[in-house]
Amino acid sequence: MTLLENPRQSLEFQKLYIALYSRAGPYLVGFMTAYLTIKLQENKFKFSLKTLVLGCICSIAVGEGSQYYGVVFYKFDRPFYLLENALYACLHRILFACLFSWFLLAYLTTGFGILDSIINHRIFTVLGRMTYSVFLMNTLSLITLTASVRTPTFFSYKTIMFIVFGDMVTTYVLGFMFYLYAEAPICGISKLLQKLLIKKFEKQIQEAKINAEKNGLPNKEKKENNFGE
Fold first, then answer.
1. Do 84 and 15 contact (CB within 8 A), yes or no?
2. What is the pLDDT of residues 149-162, one digit of tens each?
């Protein structure tokens, strides 16, 4: 209960869950994927069909496997292996990020043929804009659900499905509200301020050029007169 009462007092929360070295991996994977995508697009590189299929199978196996492998740590009669725990803590987020990175890289450089029309559907554009809001609200939803437990929960496939879909609906509803009332207005104001600042800087640069030309004109005329003499 220490984690729920005061997360700051939990050593696991501080050292393993929110620490930069635990969370930065997927972020760096995203940066590398973006850089690689730009370079491949510049060279007009295309993956072969065989490479696409094999890459998708491997990325799904590695990405999903890195998440499902965590089940073994909930077996109380299983021995504790320090190296296994350390590798899982370091790699499971990175490997899951590699799953999405491969699909993005393949889609932006080569495409998935007839599936592109589905991927480009307007609904995915809307869901994509809500990604950060859903990410923020998911944490709130999970902590609220966990903190409200007053009796032991006995899991079954039915209860797990109810929890998963209930949490998904709650998260997206909260994420949509947060996006509508907070993120979208802030982004709109930010873009407006950027445009105003850009216009202001462009005006200042233009005025500086005009002043420089005016100040340099007499010197130019003087030089021409000297050459004329």
1. no
2. 777 777 788 888 88
DSSP assignment of the chain, as one string? Answer: -HHHH-GGG-HHIIIIIS-HHHHHHHHHHHHHHHHHHHHHHHTT----HHHHHHHHHHHHHHHHHHHHGGGGGG-TTSPP-HHHHHHHHHHHHHHHHHHHHHHHHHHHHT--GGGHHHHT-HHHHHHHHTHHHHHHHHHHHHHHHHHT--S-----HHHHHHHHHHHHHHHHHHHHHHIIIIIHHHHHHHHHHHHHHHHHHHHHHHHHHHHHHHHHHHHHHHHHHHHH-
Supply the pTM of this predicted model. Answer: 0.67
Is residue 173 within 8 A of residue 143, CB to CB? The reply is no
Token code pair at residue 200: 């202001």
Placement of tokens 């940066």 in the chain = 31
Q: Render pLDDT for 17-64 as a digit per residue (tens, 0 to 9).
A: 777 777 788 889 999 999 999 999 999 899 999 999 999 999 999 999
* The amino acid at 221: E
Please state the domain extents for the chain. Answer: 1-120
Residue type, 163: I
Q: What's the one-letter identity of residue 7?
A: P
- What's the rounded Cα separation, in Å, for the pair 21 and 15? 9
